[in-house]
Amino acid sequence: MPSEALWIRLVMYEQLRRALGDGFYARLHKLYRAQPLTEDEGGAKNEVQRFVLRACVAANLDLTDFFERWGLPVDAATRVAIGGLKLRAPEMDLTRTRI
Questions:
Q1: Tens of pLDDT along the chain (99 residues)?
Q2: What's the pLDDT score for residue 14?
Q3: Which is it for the CA torsion 90, 54, 44, 10, positive or negative?
Q4: What does residue 44 show for φ and ψ, rounded to 5 degrees?
Q5: Residue 81: CB partners within 8 Å, gap ≥ 6?
Q6: What is the pTM assigned to this prediction?
Q7: pLDDT at 56
Q8: How far, CA to CA in Å, does 37 sit from each of 31, 67, 94?
Q9: Pick among 1.10.390.30, 3.40.50.720, 2.40.30.170, 2.60.40.1230: CATH of 2-93
Q10: Which pLDDT does position 43 carry in this prediction?
Q11: Any idea where the domains of the chain sit in the sequence?
């Protein structure tokens, strides 16, 4: 992967921080500490889905569109889990957050 691609991918995380505030990642890390991943939950796909779900919980928003615009697919099970939380969508397109 070219080094430019890595920097472009990091923009997604910075957009979340800027749009959701400095406390977002603290809340997200707290969720991971409270519910650590186990070895049987391994696999890149499962980790992505858990990240999407936990990010939604930490933000108290349905971030499905944001992650899909960044190329992180959200599977049906994760959509159901997020839907069950009855979260509202962000009021603005977070992918437009300037860094």
A1: 566 677 887 999 999 999 999 999 999 999 999 987 765 555 667 888 999 999 999 999 999 999 999 999 999 999 999 999 999 999 999 999 987
A2: 95
A3: positive
A4: -60, -40
A5: 53
A6: 0.86
A7: 97
A8: 11, 21, 27
A9: 1.10.390.30
A10: 61
A11: 2-93
Other residues' Cβ atoms within 10 Å of the Cβ of residue 49: 21
Confirm if 41 and 50 have CB atoms less than 8 A apart.
yes
Cα–Cα distances in angstroms (integers) from residue 58 to residues 18, 68, 74, in the given order = 14, 18, 17
| Paired tokens of 85 | 């939380």
The percent of the chain in helix, strand and coil, each rounded to the nearest 5, is 70, 0, 30
CB-based contacts of 85: which residues, under 8 Å, 6+ apart?
56, 57, 62
